[in-house]
Specification:
This protein is mostly helical. It contains four helices and no strands.
């Protein structure tokens, strides 16, 4: 009985540590846009902040979801767009919640700014 209480406590503490780590990674400093960023990049940053940062971290370095930094070396534009639209593994699909323009903007933002 005592062993099961200790085991539960350890699991709870482990879960709390993981939760705190995820929250801190999501609160990490955002990547700053250049002062002369065009409207599509500004929109992409906003979409990222509102739809992506909670899992991929404010700077795109990962959290619950994988890092998006240097995503252009891992996926071409269309493959990345397909992941955003259709989801992949535990990532939800955003094709029905984001407009085509928003998807284009966030893909560009992650490829050029993160």
């Amino acid at each position: 009985m005592v062993a099961s209480v200790v085991d539960r406590s350890r699991r709870l503490i482990g879960a709390l540590v993981l939760l705190v780590a995820l929250v801190l990674s999501a609160c990490a400093e955002e990547v700053a846009l250049p002062a002369d960023a065009d409207p599509e990049l500004v929109e992409g940053a906003e979409v990222f902040r509102n739809s992506c940062a909670r899992c991929h971290g404010a700077s795109g370095r990962g959290g619950i979801g994988p890092t998006l930094q240097q995503i252009e070396t891992k996926l071409d534009d269309q493959a990345q767009r397909d992941v955003v639209v259709n989801g992949r593994k535990t990532m939800p699909r955003f094709g029905s919640t984001l407009s085509e323009r928003e998807i284009d903007a966030v893909v560009r933002y992650t490829r050029e700014i993160l």
